[in-house]
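quick one
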Amino acid sequence: MKEYNVIIIGGGAAGFFSAINIAEQNPDLKVAVLERGSEVLTKVKVSGGGRCNVTHAEFMPQELVKNYPRGEKELRGPFHQFMTGDTIEWFENRGVPLKIEDDGRMFPESNSSQTIIDCFLGEAEKHGVEVLKNHAVKSIKHLEAHYKIETTQGDFSAEKIVIATGSNPKIWKLLESLGHTVAQPVPSLFTFNIKDDRITDIPGVVALNVEVTVVDTNLWSEGPLLITHWGMSAPAILKLSAFGAIELAKRDYKFAIEVNFIRQDFDTCLDALKTLKLDLAKKTVFKSTQFDLPKRLWHKLVLASQMTEDTRWADLNKMQLEALAGQLTAATFHVDGKSTFKEEFVTAGGVNLKEVNFKTFESKKHESLYFAGEVLNIDAVTGGFNFQNAWTSGFIVAKAITGLG
Ligand SMILES: Cc1cc2nc3c(=O)[nH]c(=O)nc-3n(C[C@H](O)[C@H](O)[C@H](O)COP(=O)(O)OP(=O)(O)OC[C@H]3O[C@@H](n4cnc5c(N)ncnc54)[C@H](O)[C@@H]3O)c2cc1C
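structure w/ flavin-adenine dinucleotide:
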C-alpha cells in the first residue's frame, strides 16, 4: 500500500490546479495525482480549438455567476475567494500571460493550450507532486482516519482525497455507493440541427443580434446566431442549449424555436416596412437588404414571404408585408436533434450541490473528501467559464486542505 497525505483522483484541469496549490502551500505534504489515462490534461489540450480559453474577463462575482445554469447560487461565495482576476494573476506569476479577446474570452498570449499544460507539468514537478498515469481508480473506502483507494496498479492510502474526475459515470456510481446522490448527466453546449429552406446553402452567415425563444417554454436568449451546414450555432443557440439542457433532453431534442432576427416587435417592423414601401417603391425587395441583416439571409427571408426576386416594394400587398414582418421578427424553425460544438462541450449533471460545503468544497457526507471541477453538478455557458469553475474549486480545496482556508 502506497501512503500519501493527499491523493487527487483525476489529472485534468481541476485536479492539477488543486494538486499544485496544495503542494505549493504546504511543501511537507506528500501529494499524488492518480490519472486513469496514459496522458494528463487531455481536455485542456483540445480546449478552445487548441488555444485553451482559460477564463473570461468578467470581474464582478454577481455577474460571473450568471453564466452558470447549474451552480449560480453555490459559486457566489467561492468567487469572492478566487475568481478571474486571481486566475490571471496566478498564471502571470508563473510565466503565462493571458490576453483578452473582443468578446471577453481570455487565452494564453501564446495562443496555444500547450503553454498551460507545460506550466502545470512544470509546477507539479517543482513542488514534488507525483503524477501517476495509467492508474484508474476502481474503488474508494472511507476507513477511520484515512481513505483506501484501489487502482488498476495497486492500492493507495491517503488522509485526504480530492475527486476531480470530471464527467465520469463510473466515479459517479462509486460516489453513489458512498452515499452521495448524482444529478442525471445530460449534454450541454450543443448546436441545433435544423433542416429548412430559409437556412439551406448559406452556412457561415451570421445575424449579429437576435432573440431566440423555445416555443412553449420560458427559455430565451439573445446574441449572435450563426447558420451552419446542419442548422444553427453561436452564443444565442449555445446559451439556450446550456440553460435548457435538461428541458431539451426531456423533449429528445425535438422542439420549435422562434427567432427574432432584428429584435423589433412585429408592429414596429411592419410600420418600417410600410415606410420602405413608399421610399423604395420602384426597387425590388430582394435587392434592397434592410435592418443590417446579411444579404443572403435577407434574400432567404424575402423569398419565404410570398414574393419572388422581382417583386417591387410598391407592389407589396398587406399579406406580403405581414409575412415579411413575421419572418423578420418571429420566424419559427423546427429543431430535430443536436450536434457537438467542437470548441467546447460539457455535461450538465454531477454530484448534488446540497451535499457539498462551498466554503471548502468538502463533502458533507464524508470528512476529508473534497470535490473540484466538473464532477460536481456545475456547468457554464461557453467562454472560459467552465475552466474558471475548475480553477476556483481547485484553489479553495487546496486552501482548505492546507489549513489556509
Ligand atoms: C473539446 C472541448 C473543448 C473545451 N474547451 C473549453 C474552453 O476553451 N474553456 C473552458 O472553460 N472549458 C472548455 N471545455 C470544458 C472543460 O474542458 C471542462 O469543463 C474541464 O476540463 C473540466 O475539468 P475537470 O478537471 O473537472 O475534468 P477533466 O478535465 O475532464 O478531467 C478529469 C480527469 O479525470 C480522469 N479520470 C476519470 N475517471 C478516472 C478514474 N476512475 N481514475 C483516475 N482518473 C480518472 C480523466 O481521465 C480526466 O483526465 C472544453 C471541453 C471540451 C470537451
